[in-house]
Structure formats: C-alpha cells, structure tokens
TrEMBL record:
GO terms for molecular function: ATP hydrolysis activity. Residues 54-185 form the ORC1/DEAH AAA+ ATPase domain. This is ORC1/DEAH AAA+ ATPase domain-containing protein. The lineage of its organism: Bacteria, Bacillati, Bacillota, Bacilli, Bacillales. Pfam families: AAA_22.
Length: 329
C-alpha cells in the first residue's frame, strides 16, 4: 500500500445522494487539464486578434468536446459576453440547405427553428445573429463547430454565406472547426482545389489537441479530482467523497501520479504497444472513476491503493483494447 500523510480533520457530514446521481456515476463534470489550458490560450489569442477561422484537431476521444464545454463556461465572461455558440455537425445521407440552417437554429436556441423553407430559415438565422451581435455591443459572433470533419463542401458554402451576410452589415464571424485530424487533410484538399476562399475564412490557423503525454499532465487532472467539490461550496471533493476517512489522513489522488502513469506504461508494454504515449482523456476519467467507485467507501472501502488496483482500473477503462485496435487495426 502507498503511505498516506496525516492532515487536519475537516468538519461536515458526508452528503448522501440517490444511487447513480453523483457526478462520478453520471460522468457529467468538467476537470481542467494542461491541454485545456493550452487550447484556452490559443482561442483567446485568436479571438483577441479577430481571426476568422481556426482548425482544432486531434485523434478521437482526447476530450475535445469536453474542452469546448469548459471553454463555453469561461469565454463569454472573458470577452464581455460576445455571443458564442456551440454547434454540432451532424452526418446526413443527403445534405441540404433547409436542414443545415434548421440545425443551426436549433443549436443556437432559436425559438422557431422548424418553420419555413431554407431561405426563410437562413433569414431568421441572420436576423437573430445580427440582433445578438448588436445587443452585445461588440458586433461579433463566434461559432464552435464540433465534429467538423463531417462537413461537406456544400455546407462550407452555406457557412460562407452566413459569414458574408454578417460581414456586409459590419459584423465579424469567427469559426472554430473542431474535429479529427482529417480536418487538416481537408484543408490541404481545398488548397489543391483552389478553394482559398474557404481556407481564408475558416482554416487560417491550426491547433493540435493532445491527450495525456506526461506525468505533469496526469498530475494536473488528478489534482482536479482532489479539488473539485460536489456539492459546490463544500469541502466534499470527489476524492474526499469516496475516501472520506483516508482523505482526512492525507489521501490525495495527486500523490499517486507516478504509480497510475506507470500502470498505463506497463500495460502498454505487455500489449506490445510501442508508439509514443498519448492517453485520451476518456480513459483517464474512466480509470479514476473506477478507482473511486470500486475501492472507495461505496465499494471495497479501502484505506489505501496499490499498484494492482491501478492496473485493474486501467484495464477496466478499455484503454488497452482501444489502443490495440488503433495500432494493429
């Protein structure tokens, strides 16, 4: 067992929640990471410089969507409530203008997304965006488009129509295309096809979103579990909730950074995975959630954790199976 260090006892009675409703059970929580911090700085730089378009790309399951959710909470305050919208690129058998504008109206929260044909929906969207931009006093609109690798040429054309319509009335649109690495290949294809107008509006800059590569990356995440309180404004962090007694004696997930990272490395070696380590955020959270649920007070109620527990948690996250499929197809 890893040693735990004594610390001052904390007051309060452990809160009780209906089974399956704690954030560790639902998975609905946001933990800051080094990579989110890097992304935040890139986004702030692009917004400050009034960049028109940015590609944010990375392999699947790195945590890009969760990172966007995190940014959506803090960016409006950072930029004086500039209208910022999170759009989801959907996959269709046959893309058409009517559905395209309808989906954007839905995603921005418009009260009347379904009524009328494509031209009416497009006009309704334009008026809505103009109104919001004027209300903010900034005359700017920001779109984050998730799963943007799904966009087809026609959709880029319709998106360009929105950009041009706003530009004609003096409102600037910044678009962040968030998706898989094929977005970079798409940019190259547009260049080869002479479609510089698309690149110039939506693909000027690039940012590669990465997974957990170092112990420092992992430590930042683990410390988040040690500090993230639920309910808010209490001392019941995620770590404390599942290890209440051990927590009072100094138990912190952050202290196990080396051991958890080593568990990933050893299991990779055993599976014959030799590529550079880059752990998707999904498998980090599944590993930590397993440790808390299975070995904390709701499970085996242990007072400490061992290397065997860490390896068991990594195995149960599905990480090795996923990496093996990526490497060996």
């Amino acid at each position: 067992m890893h040693p735990i260090v004594k610390s001052e006892a904390l007051p309060e009675t452990r809160p009780l929640f209906p089974k399956g409703t704690h954030p560790i059970e639902t998975g609905r929580y946001l933990i800051g990471t080094n990579e989110i911090d890097h992304l935040y700085k890139k986004v702030v730089q692009c917004l400050t410089n009034r960049s028109t378009g940015v590609i944010i790309h990375g392999r699947p399951r790195l945590g890009k969507t969760r990172a966007l959710e995190y940014l959506m909470r803090i960016l409006p305050e950072e930029f004086d409530n500039i209208p910022i919208y999170f759009l989801l690129s959907r996959e269709y058998k046959n893309a058409n203008e009517n559905i395209f504008f309808q989906d954007i109206l839905l995603d921005i929260g418009h009260a009347v997304p379904f009524s009328g044909k494509a031209d009416k929906k497009r006009q309704r969207l334009l008026w809505f965006l103009i109104e919001r931009a004027n209300q903010s006093g900034k005359r700017r609109i920001v779109f984050f488009i998730d799963d943007a690798q799904r966009l087809v040429d026609m959709q880029y054309g319709w998106l360009m129509d929105i950009y041009n319509d706003l530009d004609r009335v003096g409102i600037s649109l910044t678009v962040f295309l968030v998706g898989q690495d094929e977005l970079v290949n798409r940019r190259s294809s547009f260049g080869a096809e002479g479609k510089q107008q698309i690149i110039g509006r939506f693909m000027v800059h690039q940012h590669q979103f990465s997974g957990v590569k170092t112990k420092g990356d992992l430590e930042e995440i683990l410390e988040g579990y040690d500090k993230y309180s639920y309910p808010q404004d209490t001392t019941w962090t995620m770590t404390r909730y599942y290890f209440p007694t051990a927590y009072l004696n100094g138990f912190r997930l952050k202290n196990f950074t080396d051991s958890i990272f080593e568990a990933f490395i050893q299991l990779r070696k055993a599976a014959g995975i030799r590529s550079k380590i880059e752990i998707p955020m999904q498998y980090i959270t599944l590993t930590i959630e397993y440790l808390l649920r299975e070995f904390g007070v709701e499970g085996e109620n242990l007072e400490g954790l061992s290397d065997e527990h860490f390896e068991e948690a990594v195995e149960n996250s599905g990480y090795i199976e996923a990496e093996t499929n990526v490497i060996f197809g």
